Amino acid sequence: MLFIAGALGTAIAPSIPFMVAARFLLGIAVGGGSATVPVFIAEIAGPSRRARLVSRNELMIVSGQLLAYVLSAVMAALLHTPGIWRYMLAIAMVPGVLLLIGTFFVPPSPRWLASKGRFDEAQDVLEQLRSNKDDAQREVDEMKAQDEQARNRPKAKELLRQRWVIKLLLIGIGLGFTAQLTGVNAFMYYTPIILKNTGMGTNAALTATIGNGVVSVIATLLGIWAIGRYGRRHLLMTGLVMVILMQAALGCVLQFMPQNLTQSYTALACILVFLLFMQMCISPVYWLLMSELFPMQVRGLLTGTAVSMQWLFNASVAFTFPIAVDTIGNPTFFIFAAINVGSLIFVFLCLPETKGKSLEQIEKHLKKEL
């Protein structure tokens, strides 16, 4: 409902304060969904399929971005009215309505049911979701064992003071910093401006951004394949290395090449390769880890906190990127590359591996290791 109301508000906004309020409402809806959806998918998925299923959340995000790029380009080409942006924003109500309808057909999380002592209901849900009833029974037995252990554990407030939980929260926030300080959303938001600054025409630059969406969808599909075969750490570090190289290359292209069509398409190529590795190796792994890292008792709170910080980093990049480009110019991309060297070191030193474990096994492992 918030999503629908926010989208409608932005489309009919009569003033800037009204627009800001509607965008704030829309932000609450998107932020809440981004914190809830990966966790819910992780809690209903089996260990062997969790990575691929959670990664499909990212696939839906980038597919939506691609659809938005295509619709914007088509509407800009066909409609030449001053208020065209209102129609673009109004279209966002459609997925909101579909999401609202879909929620009536979604089962409750079996792990949430188990946390409330409703094990029979949890088993019923798992038997609907699993092809093998023995797998469902095994998962319920794990949940019961964890529930028995939880009775001897500290309460949620006390758990939040424990060192290993604080470390996990800091790692989660650090991963949000890593994901956003790649500058991915600066590229997604400002690719037309970057390309226009190389001399490419406005319509051509807008159309070229469709390539961002196409590459993002293809990369996420590759990421779904890769994430089931390789560890989270391996994918994340591979992605960061390539992101660093592409940011440095883009900085060199914009700083040292003469302004012509060759520069425009070379810059576009750097952006597309950047997005390929970003959406294949970093974005899906980030959302997967947000659904895996935190203990059940405080999973919702810590995931929400970490994801909220990620959106704060997103906003910081979105607001500061155009200012940085206007102030210091093309070296902005070298700064991004340097920041991501630090992110690579952070991942190497701090990120635990979670591949191949159930959520209960991950919690037990992290408590022991941290």
UniProtKB/TrEMBL annotation:
<dbReference type="InterPro" id="IPR050814">
    <property type="entry name" value="Myo-inositol_Transporter"/>
</dbReference>
<feature type="transmembrane region" description="Helical">
    <location>
        <begin position="84"/>
        <end position="106"/>
    </location>
</feature>
<feature type="coiled-coil region">
    <location>
        <begin position="119"/>
        <end position="153"/>
    </location>
</feature>
<feature type="transmembrane region" description="Helical">
    <location>
        <begin position="164"/>
        <end position="190"/>
    </location>
</feature>
<feature type="transmembrane region" description="Helical">
    <location>
        <begin position="264"/>
        <end position="289"/>
    </location>
</feature>
<comment type="similarity">
    <text>Belongs to the major facilitator superfamily. Sugar transporter (TC 2.A.1.1) family.</text>
</comment>
<feature type="transmembrane region" description="Helical">
    <location>
        <begin position="331"/>
        <end position="351"/>
    </location>
</feature>
<keyword id="KW-0813">Transport</keyword>
<dbReference type="InterPro" id="IPR020846">
    <property type="entry name" value="MFS_dom"/>
</dbReference>
<protein>
    <submittedName>
        <fullName>Sugar transporter protein</fullName>
    </submittedName>
</protein>
<dbReference type="GO" id="GO:0016020">
    <property type="term" value="C:membrane"/>
</dbReference>
<keyword id="KW-0812">Transmembrane</keyword>
<keyword id="KW-0175">Coiled coil</keyword>
<keyword id="KW-0472">Membrane</keyword>
<dbReference type="GO" id="GO:0022857">
    <property type="term" value="F:transmembrane transporter activity"/>
</dbReference>
<dbReference type="InterPro" id="IPR005829">
    <property type="entry name" value="Sugar_transporter_CS"/>
</dbReference>
<feature type="transmembrane region" description="Helical">
    <location>
        <begin position="210"/>
        <end position="228"/>
    </location>
</feature>
<keyword id="KW-0762">Sugar transport</keyword>
<feature type="transmembrane region" description="Helical">
    <location>
        <begin position="235"/>
        <end position="258"/>
    </location>
</feature>
<feature type="transmembrane region" description="Helical">
    <location>
        <begin position="25"/>
        <end position="46"/>
    </location>
</feature>
<feature type="transmembrane region" description="Helical">
    <location>
        <begin position="58"/>
        <end position="78"/>
    </location>
</feature>
<dbReference type="InterPro" id="IPR005828">
    <property type="entry name" value="MFS_sugar_transport-like"/>
</dbReference>
<feature type="domain" description="Major facilitator superfamily (MFS) profile">
    <location>
        <begin position="1"/>
        <end position="355"/>
    </location>
</feature>
<dbReference type="InterPro" id="IPR003663">
    <property type="entry name" value="Sugar/inositol_transpt"/>
</dbReference>
<dbReference type="Pfam" id="PF00083">
    <property type="entry name" value="Sugar_tr"/>
</dbReference>
<keyword id="KW-1133">Transmembrane helix</keyword>
<dbReference type="InterPro" id="IPR036259">
    <property type="entry name" value="MFS_trans_sf"/>
</dbReference>
<feature type="transmembrane region" description="Helical">
    <location>
        <begin position="301"/>
        <end position="325"/>
    </location>
</feature>
